[in-house]
Amino acid sequence: MQTELSQTLGIEHAVFGFTPFPAVAAAISRAGGFGVLGAVRYTVPDELKRDLDWIEAHVDGRPYGLDVVMPAKKVEAPNNRTLTEADVEAMIPEGHRQFVRDTLAKHGVPELAEGEASGWRITGWMEQVARSQLDVAFDYPIRLLANALGSPPADVIARAHDQDVLVAALAGSARHAEKHRDTGIDIVVAQGYEAGGHTGEIASMVLTPEVVDAVAPLPVLAAGGIGSGQQVAAALTLGAQGVWLGSLWLTTTEADLHSPALTRKLLAAGSGDTVRSRALTGKPARQLRTEWTDAWDDPAGPGTLPMPLQGLLVAEAVSRIQKYGVDPLLGTPVGQIVGRMNSERSVQAVFDDLTRGFEQAVDRVNRIAGRSGQS
Q1: Residue 200: left if φ>0, alpha if ψ -120 to 50, beta else—which one?
Q2: Where is the signal peptide (predicted)?
Q3: pLDDT over 90 for what percent of the chain?
Q4: Fewer CB under 10 Å: which end of the chain, C or N?
Q5: Tens digit of pLDDT for each residue in 122-163?
Q6: In total, how many domains does the chain have?
Q7: CA 303 to the chain's CA centroid
Q8: Over pLDDT 70: what percentage of the chain?
Q9: Stretch 296-306: mean pLDDT
Q10: Contacts (Cβ under 8 Å, ≥6 apart) of 198
Q11: What confidence tens digit (pLDDT) does each residue in 337-356 have?
């Protein structure tokens, strides 16, 4: 599974694996792919430093990268102050807070222990948090910086390039991809409708070749609905120079979901058991469909708030649901490929399966091409 981009980065397989788990990121790189650590949950710089130290010690010298959630434009608070978490908290209506309390009470979700902080405070999309992550990350030999909200600000792109770090941005349409290209990024991740997390409206089979044509010769990674070697081969055939996989690693043995109940739900889920909902962050994000997503998507409810208000509103609730394993409400961002994730395997076993499937697909295409050439 070699392409020009994989050769540039010195990796054996053109498989880029996004994950929030350091052990998974390191295992992906050791297996010959390119591990990308998601930074959004690191609101304390020392915690990110700790985990990058761990990756450095366990990656066997292989390349890896970091994914941040950083807006291209800074949101300002009144009087031109940088928006703080307290500013955001003050914008959340009491009616929405009461809806959260009522939903949790309906399902008997216990409170967190006194003094126990929520473990799910997603504030990493706020610029000052993301910049603190970058101040840490650029002290490490990362080879790629990816941004889940499009192109990073121009000064961040310049800073990355000054340190020979490639910059990638996710796009859900050819128009978005062209805007990213014009900012000077190096790689576009074409993320289709099937993908877990924040997605657009266009399916991968349509989106990938559109983006490839729109930004050529910039390399494109295909994302969304890819979980087998045959699908990797299809993505490369469509013009991508690699694939960006995220959901597939959630049920690997190296992942640390902290919830056996959630792992069981993922293993049991079919490809039709996900939904694009604003319940988690305020932007459409594909995730397991649960009674939590149903409550927020119900027209009788108050409706979700825009990002980042929704994420802060539900942070403690999500922590409580996960800690106590409240099955009807328990979910996570995941793509439609969850239907293939029906056993726990090591990252290496996933790569073995990907390479076998890829070789089978290539052999099949070669046989078809050979018959066509003889006709």
Answers
A1: beta
A2: none
A3: 77
A4: C
A5: 544 567 778 889 999 999 999 999 998 788 999 999 999 999
A6: 1
A7: 24
A8: 92
A9: 94
A10: 148, 149, 170, 191, 281, 283, 284, 285
A11: 999 999 999 999 999 999 99
CA distance 327 to 346: 25
Tokens of 310: 């929704």
Question: Quick one: pLDDT at residue 311?
Answer: 86
Residue 18 CA: distances (Å) to CA of 23, 26, 127 = 12, 11, 21
Does 228 map to a domain?
yes
For the domain that residue 239 is a member of, what is the CATH number?
3.20.20.70
Domain presence at residue 187: yes
Distance CA 241, CA 75 (A): 34
Q: Which string of DSSP letters, residue by residue, matches 227-273?
A: -SHHHHHHHHHTT-SEEEE-GGGGGBTT---S-HHHHHHHHH--TTS
DSSP state letters, 63-91: -EEEEE---SSPPBPGGGPBP-HHHHHHT
Residue 322 maps to a domain: no
Instruction: List the domain range (segments joined by +) for residue 216.
Output: 1-70+124-248
249 contacts: CB under 8 Å, gap ≥ 6? 17, 18, 19, 21, 24, 28, 255, 347, 350
Q: Where are the alpha helices (DSSP H) in the chain?
A: 4-9, 22-30, 45-58, 85-90, 94-106, 127-137, 154-162, 174-183, 204-215, 229-237, 260-268, 291-297, 309-324, 347-374
Residue where the block lists tokens 């609101």: 43
